[in-house]
Amino acid sequence: MTEAQTHYDANPKAHPGLHVIAAVEAVKGALALSAASGLELLGPAPLQRWIGELIKRFHLDPEHGSLAWLAHTISPHSVHLAAAVVLAYGLLHLIEAWGLWKAKAWASWLGCLGAALYLPFDVYAMFRHPGWLATAVLIINLIVVWVLARDILKRRQ
Asked: Transmembrane residues, as ranges (predicted)?
């Protein structure tokens, strides 16, 4: 590791963008952990009841369609599986947040690749559902990719 890289890693004030992204990732991770806990605490019965209420409220066919499929798919096993996936997602975001806050190179790579994976979906959403929200999401994701890619490139110099 060069002296410039050591100084770069040791100086968090050189990374205000990383701290902002780290804070957002920490919030996403905390929300995901809360959702995973909620899934485990609630279990399948309330979820099935809420989906049934949605089907009734919107006068949907209780035997066909995506909500009907979801209502039939919910079981204790599927709730545990969903909670485990959401837990893993949350932990990944918390680990990424810690790494970005500490200005770790691996966290910049992880965040840049993760945000870049969303870009095609953001572009699709912008064309499929044009509006200020889709545009804002795309712009924010582009900024995140740019900040993290810039960080990666600075480390290589």
From this structure: 79-99, 106-125, 131-149
